[in-house]
Specification:
Blueprint (H helix, E strand, L loop, with lengths): L17 H15 L7 E7 L2 H8 L3 E7 L6 H12 L3 E6 H6 L1 H9 L2 E4 L6 H13 L3 E3 L19 H13 L4 E13 L4 H14 L10 H20 L11 H20 L9 H16 L8 H18 L5 H4 L3 H16 L9 E7 L3 E2 H7 L3 H26 L9
Parallel strand pairs: 1-7, 2-5, 2-6, 3-4, 3-5
Antiparallel strand pairs: 6-7, 6-8
Helix pairs in contact: 1-3, 6-7, 7-16, 8-14, 9-14, 10-11, 10-12, 11-12, 15-16
């Protein structure tokens, strides 16, 4: 999410058409994935036997829950489902449908439908639950909600997928079982693209007036560029903390985000949650801003709400950085992700891939939702437990893929 789409919400329902879906799958495999927007040379699918076995069981329903760390994930999942013979519907952010009416038409025929991430979208949730209950199709939902460009580490999952799974199971009762399947997507580079990344980093350093010795380690150079960009964004908006400690990057990011969120909460007039729940606080702020900007009857407030939205996107970008993600293990892939993220935040647009890549999709052990519901004392506790299981399952799969990754992307920079 590089910017907020605050156009009035319009729901785009699924309009499945098997012929269009088949043509879309073929086009995705032959042209879209290998093309310049993805540079994906192959998609390898692993550990899918259990999922296929469950899919053949009478009364079984499937909810697929992949991580969302690259802009190519939907296309990768379409290809993975094609390979295993599963037609899955997708929940997608509504602004994706608004960008191009022709793309929206194809997406709907392939089974995609929109969701308003910034509001209570009852129709989308209703269709999601009905899709799962129907059982003719799987349903794919990205629980992270946004692209964070951290492919080796999942970010906290939203509880929406657990709600969908539980609601569907409660309505089905004994007539069928919902199986939630954690799906781990790992994208890795196939060539030594260090020179390209060095050039990208040097270009950003020049624009930010950052000087560094080319002989410096890559982590130090990336941190210098990152700190300069954070400092620039915060200083321009008056949100630079007093006496900032640039040696403690995670602490600086957290302190800056809290400063912005506190100011927004005061302006909007909402009660803040616990100080440590910064991402939850961001989502609350974001919902209120979206209500104002998407309401045509509040046009008089749109100008000031646009300023709030700009401040909120800065807070979100800050929160989306994990301060030690690169320093813990500076592989070629992680360096590339971090530089790509910095570029997106500096230039305000999606950065196309810069070298050939491959994707590995590993299906985790299916989770029987009915068992979790039966074991929990309250539905709310079951939802929290399911969300934790989903998140842990995806991380386990990523760790297993990374342990076997022998491509150049896995090498230390």
């Amino acid at each position: 999410m590089l910017q907020f789409a605050d156009i009035p919400y319009k729901y785009f329902p699924p309009k499945p058409n098997r012929l269009v879906a088949w043509l879309g799958e073929q086009g995705n495999k032959r042209f879209h994935l290998p093309g310049p927007m993805h540079l994906m040379e192959s998609v390898q699918v692993e550990n899918y036997q259990a999922l296929q076995d469950i899919n053949r069981q009478h009364g079984a329903r499937l909810l697929l829950l992949p991580n969302h760390s690259t802009h190519s994930d939907p296309q990768i999942m379409i290809e993975a489902c094609r390979q295993i013979g599963l037609w899955s519907f997708f929940m997608a952010a509504y602004d994706v449908f608004e960008r191009d009416s022709r793309v929206a038409w194809v997406m709907q025929r392939m089974g995609a439908f929109s969701v308003n991430r910034d509001g209570s979208d009852r129709q989308s949730l209703k269709d999601a639950v009905e899709t799962v209950i129907d059982g003719r199709y799987g349903l794919t939902v990205f629980p992270e909600g946004n692209v964070y460009l951290m492919n080796d580490r999942v970010t906290p999952f939203l509880d929406g997928p657990a709600y969908i799974a539980m609601k569907a199971q409660q309505e089905l009762k004994e007539e069928g079982r919902i199986y939630a399947v954690p799906v781990s997507i790992k994208v890795t580079h196939l060539t030594n693209c260090r020179e390209t990344l060095d050039g990208m980093l040097s270009e950003m350093a020049k624009k930010l007036d950052v000087e560094f010795d080319a002989a410096e380690e890559i982590v130090a150079r990336v941190h210098k560029v990152g700190i300069a960009m954070v400092q620039r964004n915060l200083k321009m908006r008056g949100f630079l903390p007093p006496n900032p400690d640039y040696s403690d990057l995670p602490g600086l990011l957290r302190q800056s985000a809290e400063l912005i969120l506190t100011g927004l909460e005061e302006k909007i007039g909402i009660e803040p949650k616990k100080p440590d729940q910064l991402m939850d606080r961001f989502r609350g702020v974001r919902r209120e801003i979206h209500k104002v900007r998407a309401d045509p009857d509040r046009e008089i407030d749109h100008a000031v709400a646009a300023i709030w939205a700009d401040e909120a996107i800065v807070a979100f970008r800050i929160l989306s950085y994990a301060g030690n993600y690169l320093s813990v293990k500076p592989t070629l892939d992680r360096v590339g992700e971090t530089i790509e993220k910095l570029q997106e935040d500096l230039y305000g647009k999606t950065v196309p891939p810069y070298a050939g890549r491959s994707a590995c999709v590993r299906f985790g052990d299916p989770i029987d939702v009915s068992e979790q519901l039966a074991a929990a004392a309250k539905p709310r506790l079951a939802m929290a437990a399911l969300t934790e299981q989903f998140e842990a399952g995806v991380q386990v799969g990523l760790d297993e893929i990374n342990a076997a990754n022998n491509h150049p992307g896995a090498e230390l920079f």
